[in-house]
Amino acid sequence: MSSVNISQLATSLLSVPVLAAAGAIVAHVANYNVTAQIEYNTRIFTKAIGKNAIYFYAVYLILSALARDYVIDLAMVQDAGSLVLFPTTIAQSLGYSLFAAGILINLWTLKALGIKNMYNGDSFGFLMDEIVTGGPYQYWNDPQYVGTSFACLGYAIVYQSAAGYALAAIMWVVFQISVKFIEGPHLTRIYANRAKEDAKKTKKE
Questions:
Q1: Any binding-site annotation on 134?
Q2: Cα pseudo-dihedral 109, 113, 114, 120, rounded to 10
Q3: In the chain, which end has fewer C-beta atoms inside a 10 angstrom radius, N or C?
Q4: 91 Cβ contact list (under 8 Å, min separation 6)
């Protein structure tokens, strides 16, 4: 383990690539939250593209995530070796294992939810009949965010990057804020509205 120069560390964390990566993390989360709410309230994507709009939207979100990951990777590369906590062999083994675990968790989540519900399908009118409790949901409430954060942390370990560790932490915090204050309330509203509609239909019958 190398000694840490606090001044160099601070300079590294406040560098343009790191700030850009932090911005990319926030922008991606804002992107899928804003577009999901716009679709729910206006059906703009469905009207423009048709019933398969959700699949185009899923591709769009995947590309958005890849763009975010590219910016994060650039920040870690330029900061590689700034915070050496492990011997190189251990760092690579641990980091790549954590990255692989994160990808597998995300694929497991995709299997449990399906493409539509993995990518804001609720906002497109594809509501689920019951809460998913199987698969990764046995262990986490939001496994896709656990998987993505694991993958980011894994690469931070591989690069032994202080910026990488900071970005992994920022990613996790942004996800939690999104779930608590934006995504959670939005989903509650969607399903509450469906319950009201179902109740009206029952009364008419």
A1: no
A2: -100
A3: C
A4: 84, 85, 157, 158, 160
As a whole number of angstroms, the distance between CA 60 and CA 155 comes to: 24
Q: What is the rounded distance in angstroms from the CA atom of residue 161 to the CA atom of residue 67?
A: 20
Residue 69 lies in a domain: yes
Number of domains composing the chain: 1
> Which two structure tokens, joined as six digits, stand for 160?
């032994």
How is residue 82 annotated by DSSP? S
Residue 27 labelled as part of a binding site: no
Q: Which domain covers residue 62, as residue numbers?
A: 10-197
| Residue 117 and residue 111 in contact, taking contact as beta carbons nearer than 8 Å | no
pLDDT in tens, 182-203: 999 999 999 999 999 888 777 6
Please indicate if the annotation marks 101 as binding a ligand. Answer: yes
Give the tens place of pLDDT for each residue, 105-142. 999 999 999 999 999 999 999 999 988 999 999 999 99
| 3 domain residue, yes or no | no
Within a domain: 114: yes
Residues in the chain, overall count = 205
C-alpha pair distances (Å), 47 with each of 51, 179, 187 = 8, 27, 21
Is residue 23 marked as binding?
A: no
**99 in a structural domain:** yes
Give, for 177, the enclosing helix (H) or strand (E): helix 162-178
Distance CA 35, CA 50 (A): 16
Task: Give the CA diameter of the chain.
Answer: 74
Closest CA to 140 of 164, 188, 176: 176
